[in-house]
């Protein structure tokens, strides 16, 4: 029987071969490592790993790491008048290699915050130090060996599992690997994570557990040594929970350090973790092996009642259900995470000095990362991101299909409402209204679509960018390029419909001018939407977008002519891009020495001579190129500003 995934080689270029894993190249920055026959790697303990009970062929290339964190504090500012709040109170801890570590604690204890700090995601308001193998953490090196999987699965819902994996492999694996070698890596991961059969299922259609496993699969592609997972079991049924945790256990026992936050695990789930780190109100209550927890509680004089899940009991203690004194007792007993007495063989745990001796600097030199922050070049990132963007655009019901439909429908509606208004001298004011309505359409729909959809993209961008899939520059150029064809087609379709139905002058030059102004307006509005979407949430953006557009309309010269604007408000007409749009439209329709208009529908046509109308609205028909230049400056300035806002926002959330 052929598996579903095997049929999508052409569609996604994922190659599935039964070739020898040993063929996998090792060139490039960090290709996955397959153990050669008889290699010392085979001696490493590999636990039984559901769902396949084998574990990945891909084991970490680097030696396991020992992480030590000391006196970690984290303070957040609550606002100008509310002061600040300390979330973590100088906690210490040790994350031993090949261990699956659970960070547990009641809601609000600071678990996610600690994970954010340990993964390097949170940097603002953080104090203390993190050591890797006995030396201070160097963030660039640490990010190369770690990944962070946040709680909300940030996946490309429009792409299938296979496509998601293929694109991630193209971004995260060396370009020296060919598609067969990358295919082997993908096949190995998906098979072991029980996702191979769902190769052709779109991300949005996966179940919660499958989405979680896909999130892990995507990060496993470049074979990280340390994985941080925020609440990987939240929202899953007990079977999916234990599948995910068993998978994490297998990955840990292959030589990785895996740290997860968990809420309140069942006894069986709890037993799957090697180590547990319990937090309460930002202080450490216990740190040690899972099985030593009961004796720790016994020694502390707070024994776990018989038939009680120790995980539940320590959470109850940490919540303060048995009194604040118990919390203080545990924090003192664990020395806020400094004590290692409840680790297995704690006497043999190497000191910082011992770790440095085990891993001398000369050894580190050999593994020194070279090149940029990402695995592949900017050109490759751009190429892959554009491919991904076009795949998504083809399937995107909102950003592509709905947008095109709206252009057709609104075009027909406006065309019918202002039918034949373009040539008629008695309907010049109507035609002027039509031109303004067209501007409104070109302003509102791209701006609102961007404001509504970008925040979701932003969360995926934040995850992928933090995990070094690509640079912000490559991402930004790719979204700009990918959207251009849709904007051009939508605008062209709309322009043809409305231009012909309203009987504007049938002159190719005038039409091109009309189309150019339309497209520029769309691009400016979209960039404006991007600026808002990059910084604000959907709710705030939906309020701010139209609100900030009102002054643009007022200063466009439509209601109050540019001549009648009070001197102290004249600046407004220079910063309103709609003014240049309206002036450009006027230039296209009534400029170029347009002859006298027809006067078939009335006895008297006040605006029979276009000059009369132009004088009245105080607009020059000869400013077309100036308007184009002004709109170009708007596009470039807003795009650049949106880029820096995006960059700022990505850093600010950390
Ligand atoms: N940026 C912030 N501003 C204000 N308070 C914050 C901020 N981030 C976290 N907190 C507060 O810090 C505390 C710890 O938050 P954190 O998300 O780390 O808890 P948690 O243990 O992961 O909780 P849960 O299990 O419910 O997710 C909470 O009281 C939370 O409200």
UniProtKB/TrEMBL annotation:
InterPro entries: AAA+_ATPase, ABC2_TM, ABC_transporter-like_ATP-bd, ABC_transporter-like_CS, ABCG_dom, ABCG_transporters, P-loop_NTPase. It is a multi-pass membrane protein. SUPFAM superfamilies: P-loop containing nucleoside triphosphate hydrolases. Residues 67-306 form the ABC transporter domain. The keyword Ribosomal protein does not apply. GO terms for molecular function: ABC-type transporter activity; ATP binding; ATP hydrolysis activity. PANTHER family: ABC TRANSPORTER G FAMILY MEMBER 28 (PTHR48041), FI22810P1 (PTHR48041:SF26). This is ABC transporter domain-containing protein. It comes from Mythimna separata (Oriental armyworm). The lineage of its organism: Eukaryota, Metazoa, Ecdysozoa, Arthropoda, Hexapoda.
